[in-house]
Design a protein that fits this description.
single chain; alpha/beta; Rossmann fold; five-stranded parallel sheet; 54% helix
Length: 141
């Protein structure tokens, strides 16, 4: 699974990235909203783990941008200082999970594993669907 980590604090970005890599996934880490928006124009990620409190712009705006660019991507929002209002805004814009810092390692692992399983199920479903239609077409039905 391809994961984008958007975190302005290098130590936090490293910590999150290392845990996701340890689960066997590929990680790209960026520090700013601008870097994340630029990369969205060229690559699609299965999961985005992002801090809402980024230094260069509003994290909610980045969520909207990413959801327009990659409609099926899953986004996990992390907040340095969260509030119920911030969490509600994030969820309204398509975040699947919201967690305040410090990030809990077990929660992060469970979320990443859950998304990976769901993606595998979806890919298997789509593969089987394509195969089914291919077989029907070949048999002349």
């Amino acid at each position: 699974m391809d994961v984008l980590v958007v975190e302005s604090k290098p130590n936090d970005a490293f910590w999150i990235s290392e845990r996701i890599i340890a689960l066997g996934h590929c990680v790209t880490a960026v520090k700013t909203v601008k870097e994340a928006a630029n990369i969205a124009d060229y690559f699609a990620y299965d999961l985005v783990v992002m801090n809402l409190n980024l230094s260069d712009a509003d994290g909610i705006e980045l969520i909207r941008y990413l959801k327009r660019a990659w409609q099926k991507t899953r986004i996990v929002a992390v907040a340095d200082s969260g509030s119920d209002e911030l969490e509600l805004k994030a969820r309204e814009n398509g975040v699947i999970y919201y967690m305040p810092k410090p990030v809990d390692e077990d929660r992060l692992r469970n979320i990443v594993e859950h998304v990976a399983v769901r993606l595998a199920e979806e890919k298997n479903y789509h593969t089987n669907t394509r195969r089914f239609f291919h077989v029907r077409k070949k048999s002349g039905l």
